[in-house]
Design brief:
alpha+beta, single chain, about 90 residues, two-stranded antiparallel ribbon
Length: about 90
C-alpha cells in the first residue's frame, strides 16, 4: 500500500478520497468493515458512490485509533450508534 505523508485528503475525487480514508484507517490499525455502496465498488459492482461507510470494532482501543484516524481525514459527517442502539449522530 502506498504511504501518504499528509493527513488531509484535499481536493480528490470521491473514489480517491475513499481509498485515502481506507489507507489512513489501515495506517492507524483500525479494525472495521466497509459496508454500503463503496463495499459494492470494492466487490467489483459498477456503481457510483460518493461516500464510504464503515462499521468499526467497538473495543475502546480500536475506537481511540478510529478517532485518531478520523482527525487525519476530511470527514464531513460522522454518524454513531451507541451499543444500546441509540442514535448518537454528529454533523
Amino acid at each position: 500500500m502506498a504511504r501518504a505523508t499528509a493527513c488531509s485528503t484535499g481536493r480528490m475525487s470521491s473514489s480517491a478520497r475513499s481509498s485515502r480514508i481506507l489507507e489512513v484507517l489501515a495506517r492507524h490499525q483500525v479494525q472495521c468493515v466497509v459496508i454500503g455502496g463503496y463495499a459494492a465498488v470494492l466487490a467489483g459492482i459498477d456503481i457510483v458512490t460518493r461516500d464510504i461507510d464503515i462499521t468499526p470494532a467497538i473495543q475502546p482501543a480500536n475506537l481511540q485509533r478510529l478517532g485518531n484516524a478520523l482527525r487525519c481525514t476530511a470527514v464531513f459527517s460522522v454518524a454513531a450508534v451507541d451499543v444500546d442502539g441509540s442514535d448518537q449522530s454528529a454533523a
